[in-house]
Amino acid sequence: MRQTLDALDRRLLAALQRDNLQTADRLAEQVGRSPSAIARRVRRLRASGAIAADVAILSDRAAGQPLSAIVHIQLERHAPQEGDRLRRRLAASPNVQLLLDIAGTFDILLLVAARDMGAYNDFADAMLAEHPAVRRFETSFVKKRVKATLAYPLEESPSE
Asked: Which of 22, 42, 136, 154 could form a disulfide with 26 if both were Cys (CB 3.0 to 4.6 A apart)?
């Protein structure tokens, strides 16, 4: 269900994507409304599902400098039920940070975090190498994170 967001909602959501621990007072200063009105609006955004989660994003250092791998998976075309089982299994893995169905040569893209190369190999062997839905997979290792965000661009519409 698509939710209609007005300009104030988008401004609040953009501010919360930058720093979700801002107080209603601080948010009110940014958008020119009263703190009580802002607190009600933020509660409504949470209740409606516009705000899907409140989480802490760890630094690489705090996480123990994990190895990050981008994995492209090509599925066997004759195994759609096995592909669904694979997706559920991958989604349940704490190593999988991102799981996307994609278009093109590959069908699934993963962002995988592992303690080190040995832990990544264990993950790949257990989850991918012998799975009947996997035709092939390719892995690229992240050398350096230049930017990492899940924030959406929330530009104001031209009519507002």
From this structure: 22
